[in-house]
Amino acid sequence: MSSAAAPAASPLSIKASPRPGSRVALEVAIPGGRSQASYDAAVDKLSRSIKLPGFRKGKVPRPVLLQQIGPLRIRATALEDLVEAAFRDAVSQEMVAAIGRPELTEGFEVVLERFEPGSALTITLELDVEPTPKLKSTKGLKAEAEAISFDPARIDELIEQSRKQLATLVPVEGRPAASGDVAVLSFSGIYVDSGEAISGGSSDAMEVALEEGRMIPGFVEGVIGMAIGASKTIDCQFPDTYPQEDAAGRQSRFEISLKDL
Per the count of CB atoms within 10 A, which of 23, 78, 225, 250 is most buried? Predict the structure, then answer.
């Protein structure tokens, strides 16, 4: 048996306490034999990873290793492995449904200060666990079925919308713009009453589906019948309920060119 497996040999004394928010605190008492075994395993692991002139890899004497990397690093490595092994054994022993990694309540640095290989060590781990739902009494509850009316016309409408959204656009040739086409337009608009440009009311190349309700009233209607390359001036009116308050209810004029269909 290798020295790395030794820490798991000694049993743990564990006290589990619930914490708010679906958390559990595990107070784990680790025997001195197990802490010493973890330290010895850390020395062995580090000696196999470090390279020193004059020594074969894995054959560095312990005194030389301590001098080169320092006792603190060895103790820290031993404690990390010890905590990890204690966590795995504790959740298995207590059958805790752990979520994520645990936290040392005191913090690693504080525990490291009092960690002495060969001496017993008590640590407290806090971790998230799967919540346990508590159901209230279900006796006497009544459920009512809600009638849902089936509208075939609405189903057909949704299918048609999906067809249009997934349709492949093909160029239109030999005819003017018609309802249902997708027109590529350049346009600019002004308010008739002031002559000022409409904010967001211009574009060099915008795809517009020639369908009712796509633009303000009069815009799509003005494009229908245009030939590719043609230009036109159309008058429109913003609805009184238009969300942009400074445009609501105002007359507008657009210079439009049909670039493509």
Answer: 78
Q: Pick 165 or 181 by higher pLDDT.
A: 181
pLDDT single digits (tens) 27-79 = 888 898 898 998 888 888 877 777 767 676 666 677 777 777 778 888 888 88
Kindly report the number of other CB atoms within 10 A of residue 190's CB atom. Answer: 17
Mean pLDDT, the chain, rounded, equals 83
Mean pLDDT of the 88-108 span: 84
Buried b (16+ CB within 10 A) or exposed e, 37-62: bbbbbbbbbbbeeeebeeeeeeebee
Task: Classify strands 231-237 and 182-191 as parallel, antiparallel or unpaired.
Answer: unpaired
Domains of the chain: 3-129 (3.30.70.1050), 171-260 (3.10.50.40)
Strand pairing class (251-260; 182-191): antiparallel
